[in-house]
Amino acid sequence: MRVVFLGPPGAGKGSLAALCKQHLGLNHLSTGEIFRKEITRKTSLGGRVQSFVTNGLLVPDELVVDVMAKQLSAETLKNGFVLDGFPRTLGQAVGLDRVLQARKAPLHGVVYLKVATELLVRRLSGRRVCSACGINYNIRTMPPKRPGQCDQCQAALITRKDDQPATIRKRLAVDRKEATKLLAYYKKKGLLQAINGADSLERVFTRALALFRAEGWIGMG
Ligand code: AMP
């Protein structure tokens, strides 16, 4: 199946997409994760996106669509994917459609995770990320077994630079501005579904699975 997860920063797109990868074998493509890796590796792409990412600003559409077009390889399309954090603007959504149409692999659906703003701020300020494998934790709701250490690979957990309170507010504002147009675009195409994301990850995953089954997306190439 080929789906997009939409929702503001902190809605749980990344955690839900990781479960879809684990249980459904889908590719999980996260633009934020790709950019952070490139920045850490000090590649030329990393250099081009660094100031946008650390300041909570959007990377220009053309560059993001280019990066994702490369990620959406024949192999990725064959096994299905969940897009997390992309598209973020109307321009990116149009760019994505163009890429997928050309590869004869249009989207099956778009899932919007609804979460109230107060909860988003609480989640983002408690978020910790593994410095090696990128898995997300939350010091309040999803703590690691050992404080400050990743359960999977034992590397140190860090707070993302853009999860500082002032940057969180800026990211939420940037997102709100774009989200309305993006939601309208997918609604008009008849692709938009919404689920309540203000719950434990297990419950949200159960809800998502029920939706995937009801829509007949599971197992779609
Ligand atoms: P995320 O991990 O999805 O919260 O993304 C972290 C940061 O990466 C964002 O604040 C942006 O600076 C950048 N970014 C990620 N995805 C996109 C996108 N689709 N368009 C533009 N910028 C993005």
Describe the model.
The chain is of the alpha/beta class and 221 residues long. The protein has one domain (2-126, 177-215): P-loop containing nucleotide triphosphate hydrolases (Rossmann fold, 3-Layer(aba) Sandwich). Helices cover 50% and strands 15% of the residues. It has nine helices and eight strands. It has helices at 13-24, 31-40, 44-54, 61-71, 74-79, 90-102, 117-125, 165-188, 201-215, and strands at 2-6, 27-30, 81-84, 109-114, 127-130, 136-138, 157-158, 192-196. The strands form two sheets. The protein has a five-stranded parallel β-sheet, with helices on both faces. Strands 6-5-7 form a three-stranded antiparallel β-sheet. β5 and β6 (136-138) form a beta hairpin. α4 runs parallel beside α6 (90-102) and α7 crosses α8. The longest helix is centred in the C-terminal third of the chain and has 24 residues, at 165-188. It is globular and about 45 Å long. The termini are close together. Adenosine monophosphate (AMP) binds next to α2 and α3.
Q: Any guess at the CATH architecture?
A: 3-Layer(aba) Sandwich
The number of domains is 1
Strand order within the widest beta sheet:
2-3-1-4-8
Q: How much of the sequence is in beta strands? A: 5-15%
State the helicity in percent bands.
40-55%
Give the bound compounds. adenosine monophosphate
**How many H/I helical runs?**
9
Structural class based on helices, strands and sheet pairing: alpha/beta
CATH topology: Rossmann fold
Q: Which of globular, elongated, flat, extended, rod-shaped describes the shape?
A: globular
Query: What distance separates the N and C termini?
Result: 6 Å
The CATH class label is Alpha Beta
State the CATH superfamily name: P-loop containing nucleotide triphosphate hydrolases
Determine the mean pLDDT: 93
Q: Mind describing the biggest β-sheet? A: 5 strands, parallel
**Compute the gyration radius: what is it?**
17 Å
